[in-house]
# Entry
Amino acid sequence: MFNLAEERPFHLQINIAATIAVLVLVFGRLIRQETGEFGTVSHIASVLPLGVCWAMLNRTRRDVTFRIFGALSILSCAMAFRIFLDKLGTHGDYWRFFVVALILVHAAVLFSRIGDYVATALLCGAISFIGLPGDYFAATGHAEFAIASGTAAVIGVMLNIIVMSSYRKLFEAKEKYKRLSGTDPLTRLLNRRAFLARFSEVQEERGQQALQLAMIDLDHFKQINDHYGHDRGDTVLMAMAQCLQRHAPGLAGRLGGEEFAVLFPGCGRNEAMQQLDMLLREVRGLDIDGVSITFSAGLVAAEAGESAEEALTRADRALYQAKAAGRNRIICGEMPSLAGENGLRPLPILPAFAE
# Structure
């Protein structure tokens, strides 16, 4: 989902505009003495809300918070300039419409929703012009003022729509590319690079707690390819991937060939073994165009700070022990295989190919 608080298009330009606005509001009173004394409580109070809102916009990464403080920053800026320009009197009237137009143009790239922009623009216009004497509108001409205001509003709305729709499309394309670049094209599981990144994310979330990691290899897969063809082999891989998605959505990856890996966050070793056992039972029950399959797996607990490659190396050693013990089983470190613990016996998938 597109989140402007995280994407922050035109972030540098918005910061520059906010800096200029604050500098004008702070030091303008030094240049124009008629606006009041510099550094008074009223002076600080007129600028402080804008500074607070600006700071919050730079800190937050939540969409709702960004929307709220985005609107507040525009309104506080409009209010501060209204006070400042009112103090300037006639000179302020010359600048009033120009300042409001600048605020609304910059606001157009601050809102991802057109409704937020329109509501904020209307409030900004109300703050800037309501209460002014009739002489102001008479001097500019009521018709001319209405035309100029409408033109500024249309330009702001169109700018908001064009810019934000373009960035939304760019965001969607970037997310699609990210998803495709991290997805195995055949199985739609995470590819090796994406799985390693997912491992790091989950490990960081778990802190000092160990993370259960299993490495899985389909038994006799080469013989399936040789005997039935690669199309059947691809079907087997996709069937295995579907099982992994059901048991561990978003936590399984294809490392290459017939090798897979899966994470079990929030699980102890025994629970992870039980989940792997359920996965193995489901895979044993598959009939893929006349082909039955099994897998061998090695389960390890990745300690805090251990890299994914190191954990996979240990899991690969446990996987090798499972294959050496006859395949079709799960081995966890030095523990006996799960097949031996619960009375299950290895079931060769294709007796003609059994070694």
User: Anything to note?
Assistant: Confidence is low (pLDDT under 50) at residues 335-355. The first strand starts at residue 211 and ends at 218. Strands lie at 211-218, 252-256, 259-264, 295-302, 330-332. The chain has two domains: 4-180, 192-353.
